[in-house]
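Trying the structure run again after the queue cleared.
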Amino acid sequence: MKEMKRILLLVLLGLLIYPVFSEAKTYINWNAEYYVDYPEDWYQVPYGTVDFFLNSQGVDPETYTYDVVLAESGDAAFFNVPYAFLHFQPVGKLSRREIDSVLDKISKEYGNEWAAGSLKDIDRSFGMARPVYDKKYKAVVVKSRITSDVTDKYMLEIRKFFKNGVFVLLGYAPEESFEKANKVFLGLLHSFSDENLEAMAPKDSFKVVDVSTRTAPTYNEEDFQETATDEGMSDSAKIIIYIAVLIVIMAAVIAAIFIKKKKSLDTTDN
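Done. Tokens:
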């Protein structure tokens, strides 16, 4: 009995450890010279799907520039789960005075003065429409809420100043999943780097798309029904297979123990 309990505990531990050691993915923007890491259970949304969504919202994809859209994998369309638009503003390295000017502009936009604060903790929360600037990360973060007749979401706007310009992240999530998504958005900020891009290249499986040459938006119904990762299999499918394999192994081990004990009892009876 003790041996069986120990085996069950090891199997449960394996299930718990699996998500922890899931490998993160990397998005590299060679034009802007930066990269970010994002969770293994997120994926890059096809550009045609994003453009169709923008058109449905009355936004012209030709004028609304973005580098990539990352979203949480699942069965729902990307705009119904947590997702983030990543964008680069090629304004070069800003001086301290220019950064202050940007912060003041953001303060006026949201109606509250920006305040200095730490963005080190990905578990931290933010007050509504209250910009927080971290001098160490050279980044400002603002939380807001977007409501209309068809949507009700929270948005986390992140602007990071670096040597080539401004990295902009607009993260969206429904209220019930925003707390978890908030950690992902801040995790993207923490992983941001503009150094050693070549070393990260082998991990990157996506090409940088030039907005001026991006193909015209097309609608593919399958894009809104399946959100498989770039590796061809959804993460949920991988997890199901992983759990199924563990169950089979556990059943085999239990059966072996049962047979061993049965033989031991038969020997004793004899």
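The chain is about 35% helix and 20% strand. Worth checking whether this holds up in the mutant runs.
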